[in-house]
Amino acid sequence: MSEFIDYSRNAGPTTTDGSPFDDQPPRPSSRGSRRSGKSSASQRRKVNYGDMSKADLEAEAKEERQHPVGDFMSHQQVMSKEGDEEAYIGGTSAFGVSGAGRAGQNDYNEKGDVAYGNYPQQPEAASYYGAVQQPGFFSEKSQQQQRYEDPRHVDARSLRNHPEDLGYDPEDHHFLNDHIVPDYPTQTFFRKCVSPGWVLTGFQIGSFLGTTAGFTSIVVMAIATYVFKFINPFFKFKKRTDVDKEWETRITGERFSSRAEYYAEFFGHECEALDVETEDGFVLRVHHLIHKKFKGRGHPVILQHGILSNSVTFMVNEEKSLAFWLLDQGYDVYVSNIRTNFKMPHRHFKRSDPRYWAWSIKEIGMYDLPAIVDFVVGRTGVKPAYIGHSQGTGTMFLTLSRGIRPDIGNKLSSFIALGPSVYAGPVLRTFPFSFMRRFKSRGVWSLVFGVREFIPIFSVLQNLLPSWLFGHIAVPVFQFLFGFGTQQWLWRQVPKFFRTVGLPNSSELLYYYMSNFSYNNCIFNTHSTEPWFPRSFPPLAIFYGTADTLVLGKPLVERIREYEPNVRLVKVVALDDYEHMDMIWGVNAVPECFLGIRDMIEETKNGYTPVRRPQRSNSRRS
């Protein structure tokens, strides 16, 4: 039995049944990982993960970079296998022969053929429920439908009262949800808060002025730090990745835009804007990308963005954008958004109503993602592959857990997690997040940041400033906040990248990350070694960057391998020197990351049967 990795807060090393572990040497590393002979920091760790300090998290991030787990992927390895860039646009995989090539001997000579080797099997009737396409929110039929007055008060169990809910446990408490979103019972309560002396309005104005002053100081410090790095002769920038000079200097003519339709049409695709309504009344915007050649006949794929982003994040890297690259491979691509993105409405609450902003990651996992998956399944009749980035992965892990919506796992062919935000990194312990963590009291947080949009001056600047100017200002700000480097990006694209981030988000959502996630270092309870996920969990692939300090991928892989017998972990890829955004914006993301994503989709779209690899013999050949 392997050595226990103590993620708990108070408990000592025990097995799932509570018995102590035997003293055994650490389990050897997986094939393909880069390790030294010494045991890893996580294997030596005797401190509980939830009690880790900033120094502990920094040591963990350093360990993740020096000793990654899984298949180690670097640019040098790709070039040695693939040759020049033309080989991977529609060619073989950097991971060897693809799973689809092994199974169906598909033809990879032409872009798009990969999605049609074996058309996906239809899901069984008992594997999903209620996946019917809903009418658009603004349609006459939708307006005539009778709805309950306050959907936030629906019995949670009533949403899952189905025989195929494998693994649902109403008593599950692995999700750490220490804070409860405030409940605003009726519209009358909101009006009472406003009418006598404009209490709430004055409160929000004060919060707006305070956060604007704080944000202005952050911008000044960020720009000053940015300039100081350039004029400081002793500061050493990280070496930039090798980039094709013609690609780096070419002029595409595209402008800075926040519209998905613009980027899709610019690169010759069609973009269909669809409305999906959640169980609690929010209307979500889903962008359906259509290739003019394939017309959406391939296997469906859902792309879900991270925090402070929207669907356009997957479309700003020109032809190498993940959404467009998957479209060129022949897949049927749906790029989804969470609630309030693109100023989408609620059936009952106006944007000025605090109830419009009263949600956190639990509501995203319980309502938004199930609505999106049900919509795509009902529209295509096929179990889609789900690809999430950052918060888009953390919320799906939450959705698939025992206490939220485990039945969704039966409706997905695979779950591909890019930079999974399950375990926190050391960035959340640095300034200004270290200062924001002090506002753990809800009253103090609401007094400073309000009860509606988080730092609304950011969205005001997005609307007032020219797109090119906002993009250039946002670059040093996000580098100052998250420590992002630009060594993996084309510099001419960087301002365009950051035109699509910093979008309006709920103050409650940021309160969760500062008061809960950054303290517990995980969205789940690491105190228990009992499985977080039931057997309905779909086949899983994890891609994480070894230089990512915002979230940590290695602890998640170790947790799944040790304590999650119901999770079929098909692929783990450690991307060399990749930070949090590099796997979707990196100039070499196609050969180093996207091909592995494609292989995962192909291996699982018709069902996944794990292949048992023969164990190596310890005896030497004579």
Automatic annotation (TrEMBL):
InterPro entries reported in the protein's UniProt record? AB_hydrolase_fold (IPR029058), AB_hydrolase_lipase (IPR006693)
Q: Does the keyword Cytoplasm apply?
A: no
Domain Partial AB-hydrolase lipase positions: 261-317
Disordered as annotated region, ranges: 1-74
Residue ranges spanning the membrane: these are 208-231, 443-461, 467-486
Presence of the UniProt keyword Endoplasmic reticulum in the record? no
Q: Which UniProt keywords apply?
A: Membrane, Transmembrane, Transmembrane helix
Comp. bias (Basic and acidic residues): 53-68
Which residue stretches does the UniProt record annotate as biased composition, category Basic residues?
A: 32-47
In the record, biological process GO terms are:
lipid metabolic process
One Pfam family this sequence matches: Abhydro_lipase
Protein name per its UniProtKB record: BQ2448_3194 protein
